[in-house]
Amino acid sequence: MPESPVTNPFTRGADAERYAKARPFFHLGVLRRLAESLDLDGALGLDVGCGTGLSSLALARYPRPRRHAPPLSDPKSWTASGFHLRHDGRDRTIVHWSQAELVDYLTTQSNVNAALAGGLDTIEGVRRWLIEATAPLFAGAPAVGLAFGGAIQCGRRDA
C-alpha cells in the first residue's frame, strides 16, 4: 500500500494543545440558527465530515441520546442511509479577537504546523512574525471582528 501524502497535523503534542486552546467555539450558534430555520426541534443531530469534531461537541448539548452509526462522508452514503438534503448553504459568523487570540489561532494552521515540524522556524519566531503582521489590523483597537464561514449541508432521515 502506498504511503499517504496526508499526515496527521497533531502528531506533535504542542500542535494539538495550541489547537484546543485557540479554536473559537461558534458551532452552537450555527446549530441553533439551523435548527430554527429548518424546524428541527427535537430532531437528532449527527455531525458528518466536520473535521475537528467541534460541531459534535455542540450537538452533544442537545438533550437527545447519541446514536452511533458509520460515517456518512459523501452524498451517496447519505442516500444509501435514507437521508435527503434539507439545507445546502453557507453560514457566516463574526468572531471577535484580541491580537493575542488571533495570533494564537493562526499558529494552529497546518502550514505553521508543517514549518515547525520541518524545523523551518520555532513557535516563538512564528508568533513574533504574526504579531508584527497582524498589528495593522488592530491599529490600536483592542479587538477586531473577523468572519468565519463555510458550506453547511443538513440532511434528514425520515423515521
Outline the structure in words.
The chain is an alpha+beta fold. The protein has one domain. A two-stranded antiparallel sheet has the order 1-2. The chain is globular. The chain starts with 12 loop residues before the first helix and ends with a strand.
Tell me the β content.
Answer: 15-25%
Compute the average pLDDT: 75
Q: Give the low-pLDDT segments.
A: 64-68
| String of helices and strands | HHHHEHHHE
Describe the largest sheet. 2 strands, antiparallel
Our count of helices gives: 7
Radius of gyration: 19 Å
Category by helix and strand content: alpha+beta
- Strand order within the widest beta sheet: 1-2
Q: Roughly how much helix do the residues carry, as a percent range?
A: 40-55%
Q: Termini separation (Å)? A: 41 Å
General form: globular
Q: Tell me the count of domains.
A: 1
Query: What's the total count of β strands?
Result: 2
